[in-house]
Amino acid sequence: QSVADYDLWLSYSEITDQKLSDEYRAHTRSIAFLGNSETLTVAQEELHLGLRNMLGEASFQMDADPNRATLIVGTKDQLHATIKDRLIQDLEQVGREGFVIRTMEQKGKNVLVISANTDMGILYGVFRLLALMGQHQELDKISLVDAPQIDLRMLNHWDNLDRTVERGYAGASIWNWQKLPEYIDQRYIDYARANASIGINAVSLTNVNANALILTTMYLEKVQALAEVFRPYGIKVYLTARFSAPIEIGGLDTADPLNQNVQQWWNKKATEIYALIPDFGGFLVKANSEGQPGPQNYDRNHVDGANMMAKALKPYDGNVIWRAFVYSEHDADDRAKQAYSEFIPYDGQFMDNVLVQTKNGAIDFQPREPFHPMFGAMPKTSQIIEFQITQEYLGFSTHLVFLPKLFEEVLDSDTYRKGEGSTVAKAMDGSLYDKKMTGMVGVANIGSDLNWTGHPFAQANWYGFGRLAWNPYLDAETIADEWLRLTYSNEDAFVNPMKQLLIDSREAVVNYMNPLGLHHIFDTNHHYGPGPWVSELGRPEWNPTYYHNADENGIGFDRTIEGSNAVAQYAEPLQSRWNKPKTTPEKYLLWFHHLPWDYVLENGDTLWDGIALKYQEGVDQVGKMISTWEKMKPYVSKERHSEVQMLLNIQLKEANWWRDACLLYFQTFSNRDLPDGVEKPT
Ligand code: GCW
């Protein structure tokens, strides 16, 4: 019952159910693992590890004759014609990274086959088979054909070279730059295994608030060592490139993207990197945002900057990932509008190895935001989505919040860019517009804590991100179900209530932090607790008061035609719908509207009462999470149980804090009593 936190969802717990383990043993008794490569070696090792832990060492043999094997693992080219012919149609569907898992008949006997077009497909197939077994799924009649729907499935680390992590809440950076390149921490390997098991195939190692030193030879050799660890697992390395690097480490006196010496410098840098890391992914760039240098420092624009770097990488098939997270103090009528205004005119001007990376919402990783209006609005650009897995505005690694629910909500949102059904998922996976490359990015929540993510349940957010990047149409419940089974237990009495707990946890945090479309009312800089009163910071859009605008007349941000007109950045019918409070979903109400305290909500409550009751509901939901967890003692180790219990107790205390702080503050404007049912602050 006890689970080593370090093992994540790869704990491969022993299968004690006799019938099931017999069934699995029958399938895996004699294994023919065909072919030879670094990737196939790690796949074979993983299969071995998984089977040994789940079924016991003595139960299988690894190098069986394919004619007599019960499990055959091999790429299309390795398979015997009689088996290959029966799989060929499916293999044609699964591309470079997909796989087929099927039971079929061979000489009157059942044989289980994992096949793919490439070695990477095999590795993904092996991980999937082990996951299915870990979830106690039937294999007898399995026929699974699966392939990723998104090309680039990427983690962004915001890790600094001194091992601090921006917005990292799980200890120091796992990259030990001081000991690299010689010392290869086992963690790097396990990190690669975990990522490959959920299909992550790219990682940017360093903070987007970048340090140019990472591009010096000394650091590149360290990066090379990591890239070599990751390569068998199909993971490409990217680095953040500081736009002013030619000045800082190159001795030039400018970083002007149209200056030939600057272009030359980046060309040479690319050549140097690819000599060390032939499959280097490319650069990730945050430019002209929050004080980072960029092309605008030289009166050039994003296209000039991105294309200059793209030219340097092009000969090696590298990409530039250019972030669209920009906002400036000069045009601060509505921060939410700025990225769209700045980027949309550039559609069609970026080189084809430039990807524009846009956060899921137009402000900044809030507990809830409407989808970013740029999605679907740049048909000629490879636009990729950035989610935050680390919980900057979601209670750090202290609060339990299951993020796949948030990711799913965004991916399922309809942009209407090509009529009804133009969901964000479709804009991302290339089905809406033909894209050279598609991608989904998550800001990692990983650190050197024993359990990787700080909160043991934050592992589910890493897991869930990877699963959704593989298939953006998966639903959050399926992901919760998988993760709970793989990490903790297959007992229904555990899985069912805990699944509900995970699913509800997202709405709980919205309710006790930012209900009804409120946003960015966090205390300054750290973004942890409430701070709706903060109003004296240097720039208007740094102040929470800017976002909620509470006064005697009401509360909310007017983004209608009469207000900032941010609604105009959305396609019809959203534009018209969200322009009126009555046709705006209440979850976004105060995002788009400034409304009187007595505005009447759908359920008949006044806005003031509604806000207060939502805060209370959030607190009550956390209370319910605690009582559910209380009943889970039989299914998890004592240590795990008490760890999560302590964290949930903090979460409850802080949900109360949020409710009291926000309601007492807003009450100074509303001048109304709290409704029945809302606990009075003491
Ligand atoms: O969410 C904000 C964070 C910054 C971060 C920035 C960004 C890396 O508060 O810490 O900087 O976004 O995404 O660039």
From TrEMBL:
Show the catalytic activity. Hydrolysis of (1->2)-alpha-D-(4-O-methyl)glucuronosyl links in the main chain of hardwood xylans
Looking up InterPro entries in the UniProt record yields: A-glucoronidase_C_sf (IPR037054), GH (IPR017853), Glyco_hydro_67_aGlcAse (IPR011395), Glyco_hydro_67_aGlcAse_N (IPR005154), Glyco_hydro_67_C (IPR011099), Glyco_hydro_67_cat (IPR011100), Hex-like_dom2 (IPR029018)
- First-level EC class: hydrolase
Q: Which domain of life is it from?
A: Bacteria
Keywords (alphabetical) are: Carbohydrate metabolism, Glycosidase, Hydrolase, Polysaccharide degradation, Signal, Xylan degradation
Q: Does the keyword Signal apply?
A: yes
Residues forming the Glycosyl hydrolase family 67 C-terminal domain are 453-677
Domain Glycosyl hydrolase family 67 catalytic positions: 134-452
User: Which GO MF terms are attached to this record?
Assistant: hydrolase activity
- Residues annotated as domain Alpha glucuronidase N-terminal: 8-129
- What EC number(s) is this enzyme filed under? 3.2.1.131
Q: How does it assemble?
A: Homodimer.
Q: Which family does it belong to?
A: Belongs to the glycosyl hydrolase 67 family.
Q: What is this protein called?
A: Xylan alpha-1,2-glucuronidase
